[in-house]
Specification:
The protein has about 750 residues and is of the alpha/beta class. The longest helix has 21 residues, at about 1-20.
Length: about 750
């Protein structure tokens, strides 16, 4: 048992060394003026159990990592529980089986207790001596987070925390004084004794009598905070039987035993039943009038918070600290790096400033994180959100009209599968393996008048969906409408994306390049110089043909992930393109969602004079490597400051624009620690065997054979205008499907889209 304790401690010491080299520990004081907090100073950041979004809650690494990655004055939070022999320990829950390995170490220790009127079953700290608990490893309690750091860190006592971690500020939460009293422990006396050994800056509890009992016995510098639990946790204070609602309505009374309140964030900004923000309450204003500070809880970057934030956790923190007529006095977060940046870098941004310099912000199907792809509303929001370039993936209809549509298959971005055109489904292996309803099978009138847009959900496998209130909002646009819309807007340019050109030309009968260039000329883009025309294509033959028209900036899209490019392939690309677009994982490859290294791709292309734009940037936390802490802004910052990428192709232009407007963005070399690029591969270094994921095969190198294609052939007058639908006798068996297969394939698609 003692050997296990020593090995866990050694793991902690090794972690300390690695944490210290991840980032240079540096702090930056925030401007103390103009904050609408009670004291006029910047809100404080409280790290719940340390950096518990990444490491097991209350573990040594979780606390130590705060010092390396957050602001220097971040307050460390410890949920205090008592062992059988009365030792205060830091663990996030009264039952230990979900946050430690105790069920494996002591399989017979399961008990059932009444906890403040609620029956709970599990392993309780109060049933084990501290010497037994110190043999138990802490684990990640939330299933959606990485388990790779589980079991390597022992439970810490409060004095261990003080001894092992350099604290700037400490917050102890005493959640269950009444329960421990029933088990022979006086938490009030323990707290008073502890306050003589450890400097405690904040003590919180949901029990009034506990706070009254220590009020005159602890240092006057220690702030006592009355905690309001969520309605799911409790409705009544077990020490007084008063309802929390009645106490919330009598804030002046709370000032008799506390200097502040800690509330669930929904007390301040409630959300509707469909998860949209409603009007804020008057709680913060009322509490400040009564002389109470207000701290907001339940912040985590990987929460499914209100759709109003577009899956951007930084936006949520700003809503509570820099929005409207008030600011909370502090936020309790599992990811302290994000509120530290919100407070230190994003206050009072100049929203009128649109700088079209590096990195370029390029929309992906408009603001497709908030509206359906390639719709008027999506493009309007992209412009309003500060995109430098808006994009149109060009498709062609049956009657030869060029339109903006994210996919040639209408099933992906419209309700075509549920429409009157569902019988027009066909399979075209040259385009995709699955059956679809293609743009060239319908006329423009059929698409624009009979179909509805459908918002994309690229991470729906994780049951994460986008903006449901606007899932069918907006109108489809012709290419000419898109070009007209862009005129006069504060943009650097427009991006036209050309895919499947050879197929359309050979099998459908339209000369896409000629149609596109003619439309550009007719829209006045042949002569105007205010908007740059960018053309992106994964087909080198398309760009080679367009190279004859030097007005356009040509971007070659590399579809596969690569670790490098041969000199010959780069030279080939230079002949027909000005830039490349690469998947973001070609810069920072991942293994089990941990960044492994930085490839040579950026250096290879940029040293040859090619700009590099990254695609695949989204806000949803499941699309972001663990190293970026479920924060899209941390990811963007690392790709720009760490890899010097030239631009982002993103579903959420607003997040990228706010990043460029940040005061810390302009500071560059003088930016604070929480605005530094992450250490590449740093988190993976902290994983110990046998939890280390198996090494993956290295990504391939781009070679000339991956790049060069045969020149485009001319459109043949004998080519049919459109591939026949299933009701027509097929000229090519591979282009149609039998009715029975249509039914089998389409049924699950329709179910998913309902």
């Amino acid at each position: 048992m003692g050997k296990r304790r020593n090995s866990l401690a050694l793991c902690g010491l090794a972690t300390l060394f690695l944490v210290q080299i991840l980032v240079l520990a540096a702090g930056q004081s925030t401007n103390a003026s103009s904050w609408k907090t009670l004291n006029g100073k910047a809100p404080i950041v409280i790290a719940r159990g340390g950096f518990s979004g990444t490491f097991p809650d209350s573990s040594y690494s979780a606390y130590a990592f705060v010092l390396a990655a957050s602001s220097a004055d971040t307050t460390l939070w410890c949920d205090v529980h008592l062992s059988k022999d009365g030792v205060p320990i830091c663990v996030p829950s009264i039952t230990l089986d979900n946050c430690t390995s105790i069920a494996y170490v002591y399989p017979k220790g399961k008990k059932k207790y009444d906890v403040n009127g609620v029956s709970k079953t599990g392993w309780f700290a109060v049933d084990f001596n501290s010497s037994d608990l110190f043999q138990v490893g802490l684990t990640q309690a939330i299933w959606s987070r990485s388990e790779k750091f589980d079991g390597g860190y022992p439970i810490l006592s409060v004095t261990d925390l003080k001894t092992q971690v350099k604290l700037s500020s400490l917050w102890l939460n005493m959640q269950y004084p009444k329960f421990y009293e029933q088990h022979g422990h006086n938490l009030r006396n323990y707290t008073i004794s502890l306050s003589k050994q450890v400097v405690i800056n904040y003590i919180s509890s949901p029990e009034e009598e506990f706070l009254k009992g220590i009020r005159t016995r602890v240092s006057p510098k220690t702030k006592l905070i009355f905690r309001f639990p969520s309605e799911k946790e409790a409705l009544t204070d077990p020490s007084t039987n008063k309802t929390y609602d009645s106490l919330k309505d009598n804030l002046t009374y709370i000032t008799t035993f506390a200097s502040g309140i800690l509330v669930p964030k929904g007390y301040i900004w409630p959300v509707s039943s469909d998860n949209y923000l409603t009007n804020h309450t008057s709680l913060v204003t009322d509490a400040h009038k009564a002389g109470l500070e207000v701290y907001a809880a339940d912040f985590a970057n990987d929460n499914l918070f209100s759709y109003n934030y577009s899956y951007d956790p930084l936006a949520e923190y700003l809503q509570f600290t820099d929005k409207g007529d008030f600011s909370v006095d502090g936020v309790l977060s599992d990811y302290p790096i994000t509120p530290a940046a919100a407070i230190g870098c994003f206050k009072d941004l100049n929203t009128s400033n649109v700088d079209h310099g590096k990195p370029l912000i390029i929309s992906h199907n408009g603001a497709s994180g908030d509206y359906p792809d390639c719709t008027d509303l999506g493009y309007r929001k992209a412009v309003d959100d500060g995109a430098d370039v808006i994009d149109c993936t060009v498709q062609v209809t049956k009657d030869g009209v060029l339109i903006c549509m994210s996919s040639v298959d209408l099933i992906h971005s419209t309700n075509a599968a549920q429409s009157q055109f569902s019988s027009r489904i066909s399979t075209i292996p040259a385009l995709q393996n699955s059956a679809g309803i293609f743009t060239f099978n319908l006329t423009w009138n059929e698409i624009s008048q009979s179909l509805k847009p459908m918002i994309s959900s690229p991470v729906s496998d994780f049951y994460i969906y986008r903006n449901p209130r606007n899932k069918n909002a907006g109108k489809f646009l012709k290419l000419s409408d898109f070009l007209d819309f862009a005129k006069g807007k504060d943009l650097e340019g427009v991006l036209l994306i050309l895919e499947d050109v050879a197929f359309i030309q050979e099998k459908v009968g339209f000369d896409m390049i000629s149609l596109v260039t003619t439309t550009l000329t007719d829209a006045g883009y042949g002569n105007q110089t205010s908007l740059q025309v960018h053309v992106l294509s994964p087909d080198s033959a398309v760009l080679a043909k367009l190279r004859q028209d030097s007005k356009y900036k040509l971007i070659y899209k590399i579809l596969k992930n690569i670790r490098d490019a041969s000199t010959a392939s780069v030279a080939d690309i230079k002949r027909f393109a000005d830039a490349v677009a690469i998947d973001k994982y070609s810069v920072y490859p991942i293994d089990d969602n941990f960044i492994t290294n930085m490839t040579n791709v950026m250096n290879r292309f940029q040293s040859a004079g090619l700009k590099v734009y990254g695609y695949g940037f989204m806000n949803e936390f499941v699309s972001i490597a663990w190293d970026f802490f479920a924060d899209a802004t941390v990811e963007l910052n690392t790709y720009f400051q760490g890899a010097m990428i030239d631009g982002f192709i993103t579903d959420y232009p607003a997040t990228a624009r706010r990043y460029k407007r940040s005061q810390c963005f302009s500071a560059r070399n003088n930016s604070p620690v929480y605005f530094e690029p992450v250490q590449v591969g740093g988190l993976m270094q902290l994983i110990v065997q046998p939890a280390m994921p198996p090494a993956l095969a290295p990504l391939p190198v781009l070679n000339p054979s991956d790049v060069l294609e045969a020149p485009l052939t001319s459109v043949s007058s004998e080519t049919p205008l459109n591939p026949p639908g299933p009701s027509t006798k097929p000229s090519h068996a591979s282009q149609t499907v039998t009715p029975i297969f249509v039914v089998v394939f389409l049924l699950p698609v329709i179910v998913l889209l309902v």
